[in-house]
Amino acid sequence: MAKAYIRTEMAPTMDPPATEVGVIGWMSKNLFSDWLSGVLTVFGLYLIYLIVPPVFAFSITHAVWSGSDGTFCRNISDGGVVPDGEEIGACWPFIGAYFDQFIYGRYPIDERWRVDISYLVGVLALVPLLIPSIPYKRENAIFLLAVYPLMVVVLLTGGNIDIGSGAWSTLAIIVALAAGIVIFQAKTTASIDIGSGMVVVAAIGIILAAVLFLLGFDWNLEAVETANWGGLLVTLVVAITGIVASFPIGIVLALGRRSKMPVARLTSILFIEFWRGVPLITVLFMSSVMLPLFLPDDVQFDKLLRCLIGVALFSAAYMAEVVRGGLQAIPRGQYEGAMALGLSYWRMMGLIVLPQALKLVIPGIVNTFIGLFKDTTLVLIIGLFDLLGQVQLSFTDPKWSSPVTSHTGYLFTAAVFWVFCFGMSRYSIYMENRLHRGHKR
Predict the structure, then answer these.
(1) Is residue 34 in some structural domain?
(2) In this structure, are residues 245 and 310 in contact, taking their beta carbons and an 8 Å threshold?
(3) Longest dimension (CA), the chain
(4) 59, 169, 203, 358: least CB-packed within 10 angstroms?
(5) Residue 364's CATH number
């Protein structure tokens, strides 16, 4: 008969296997989990070996860090500035000499403080909005989306914009007066619902009147034509305007495409399919060359403004399809539950459906934003010099002519674009991890 065994003391603890913890454990799980992962890891390391050392040598080790012209950046192997025939690296003095033009373009030197203020205020307003724990999010968002764009327009252009024949100003004043009467009656007699469409239109009228007044007011600033803008300034203006404008338009188009109203659905489908079927280059050409042909002779439409409208509409079509994918991923029970609670369509979408849909498609939304940011380089074809265009224009200076000048300029441009795009990508990953509720594995 077998004797029972009773443990009288705890078994000694043992360290986990070396293949399960630490650096070796991480590598075995992520890099060498099977033979295919091992092969791809080795191939990736080989590519890094081929690419990183030459780039590092060109940009750091063999780079030229000082000099007054391109002579210091020329590869002279006969006892000149480069001993023993070594390959010379990046010509960073060239970037230093043209850095102001890369940032401001041909913006007047004495007025560049206005661009600096626009940059500074934008960063100071954006950073608190991106940090979840900082309070006053609503006020910050209102300032960034409503007040800041108007402030930037006045600063960069100088204000005192000619609205036209005065008809728009007269109409805005009439609408504003009507809005005041409507709101006064609504608050005193309660005969008009505050949430009615009339009050919404009245509020729009007040905003329109204020905008037209501020744009037409003489702020005693020197007027700067958009033709003098360039460099990173144009890149950020086109990208940020396209991103901010395309997002709400894309949401409306996505809702319209899924609407049960035939007219709204057909209009949204035609808009989306038209803009998705046309290359962005064609859109820019149409806005720059063809659109003025359809306007009266006395109507002058700024080239940059035409570009902004075209980019915003083009990006909105792609944003609409991304948002529509998120709407289709929401279970039907969410719609039915919201309707069972008696919520109206817009409350159902704003409180229940859209928050979940947008959360699911954060990667797609940010991917569209990144693509739009990189597509800003196409504005060069219509005569707008963005960062890349300004860098390419600087290559024509014979003072800085050297075999590595263009390589240095493209490397600098790539680094700037990478910083912005990588920042957007990492922040989207952070928000996706913070907002997910168990749908990720």
Answers:
(1) no
(2) no
(3) 111
(4) 203
(5) 1.10.3720.10
